[in-house]
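Annex B. Sample input.
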Amino acid sequence: MATPPDPALDLTLLSHSRAAEQTRTSRLEQDVLGLFDQYRSRLLRYLISIGLKTHDAEEIVQEVFLALFQHLRREKSRENLRGWVFRVAHNLGLKHLHASRRATGEDLSDCHADPAPNPEQQLNARQRRERLLAVFRALPEQDRWCLQLRAEGLRYREIAEVVGMSLGAVSMSLERSLGRLARADRRI
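Annex B, continued. Sample output.
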């Protein structure tokens, strides 16, 4: 005949299980906070560069890191978390832009960060910046995305995953964009 389970033993196991879960959650929180500190400003810059207002970009960054915490809590892959956060931010940012466009009927494709030059810059530096910004703005939307993500330090493969392009298309886009910028920079 089987002996009944010991209630004290069950409580001890439950207590250990809860403590282990709290420790795991605490470690995850620390990991996500570290990544937040590392990538927050980069994500904000990228989201603003694709046309979001600062307030909206900040909210999306918070959503990204909440999603990251949930992703890690479900013990999903930790491979290439930088690419993962940029891809999620990119998708959420575009979703927000499209929703805003539908709600207001506005064409938001021409929204960019304020290109006003720094008043302390010399005239030549200001003119160069204005010339390069004009070339950047004239680039197709996907070329701008690729260039901005590359400026944030993402590798070609990561950029391809974020914007949903082939690796070859990312390479061609960056080569074309950088060539245009170089030609504009040589003009005096």
